[in-house]
Amino acid sequence: MKAGVIGAGAWGTALAQLLAAAGEQVRLWALEPEVVEAVNRDHANPLYLPDIPLSPGIEATGAMADMADRDLLLVVCPAQHLRSVVAQAPVGVPLILCSKGIEAGSHLLMSQVAQQAQPRSPIAVLSGPTFASEVAKGLPTAITLACADADLAARIAARIARPAFRPYLSDDVIGAEIGGAVKNVLAIACGVAEGAGLGLNARAALISRGFAEMTRFGLARGARAETLGGLSGLGDLVLTCSSTHSRNFSLGKGLGEGHPAAALLANRRTVAEGAFTAPVLREAARASGVEMPVVEAVCALLEDAAPLPQVIDALLARPIRAE
Ligand SMILES: NC(=O)C1=CN([C@@H]2O[C@H](COP(=O)(O)OP(=O)(O)OC[C@H]3O[C@@H](n4cnc5c(N)ncnc54)[C@H](O)[C@@H]3O)[C@@H](O)[C@H]2O)C=CC1
Ligand SMILES: O=C(CO)COP(=O)(O)O
Question: Which residues form the Glycerol-3-phosphate dehydrogenase NAD-dependent C-terminal domain (predicted)?
């Protein structure tokens, strides 16, 4: 059992910890030399997952060549870097994609990008309501594991399941990915409502109407409705729209408090995927003729295209119609 984790941000480190805590020797690829050093020397990742002691069974490396002997690879980099990262991975090893986003320019989901970058590697997607720090602490978590190959899905599930970490299987890869990508944009909207003091009714409305947008877009791209209503869709939407533990929600809260997007996004080390997904999603939705007014509103705020009161008024002034 030789798992590798590519990407040592909060989520990659938490997943490495999940695997290593059960005795597996895990190799963790990190971009930053100081992360490699901290994991190997101090069994910690203060840059991305502070205050969580890591298992000595995690060995970090900065060389992708060190992943050549792995029999399973978890890919956990930011979505916009997935193509270049996966292209460097060893050929033919099953890839579990854990990034949430849509590639700019191509509008492709991560599984489609990975298939282009590594055509001979089997692909699965792991997505759901999973704050990294809670998983690293061993708190109870359920997640969707989506894979077109049922045998591979069962083998991966047996490998990653733990008493407090329950994968649920699906063959709807597209559906699992769309939920994870779209919820990040909607979490920004809910953060805006929090920051601007719009109240909890507004948040509930954004979650419900945002879920309607996710469903419209998902169905147009071939997702199944039950996947969107499951852990990787509605489950993750509820989690991310409810707490400042979410980087996307926090970004939205800053926007709602009146801070300009450019200032909030400048010099940040951690990734708020929704900020990258929003314009890509708007473009993809328009191209498919899918209406996504909440996503459009988030884009307007991220681009500083209109003042917040005007964006809120525009959403509230939409024509009354059937739910
Ligand atoms: N943090 C969480 O709770 C969860 C995160 N995810 C997803 O996992 C993915 C990674 O997020 P986090 O681990 O939270 O990241 P993070 O925000 O903790 O850290 C940023 C990561 O980006 C990497 N990075 C920066 N520039 C890069 C480049 N040019 N090439 C490759 N990597 C680069 C850094 O090395 C670091 O690993 C995202 O798509 C996120 O949506 C999914 C579930 C939970
Ligand atoms: O995807 C996540 C939880 O499932 C993490 O959300 P944030 O990226 O908004 O922190």
Answer: 172-312
Q: 253 catalytic, yes or no?
A: no
Around ligand 2, the residues with Cβ closer than 6 Å are 100, 129-131, 184, 187, 236, 239-240, 246-248, 273
| Dist. CA 30–CA 47, nearest whole Å | 11
Q: Compute the average pLDDT of residues 13-24.
A: 95
Report the residue among 5, 271, 273, 277 best suited for mutation to probe ligand 1: largest number of ligand atoms under 8 A from its CB: 271
29 bridge partner residues: 6, 61
Ligand 1 close to Cβ of residue 78 (< 6 A):
yes
CA atoms within 13 A on the CB side of 77: 24
Which bound ligand lies closest to the C-alpha atom of 79? 1
Confidence check on the interface: ipTM exceeds 0.95, yes or no: yes
Task: Please give the domain boundaries of the chain with CATH numbers for all domains.
Answer: 2-171 (3.40.50.720), 174-316 (1.10.1040.10)
Does the reported pTM lie above 0.95? yes
**pLDDT over threshold 90, residue 267:** no
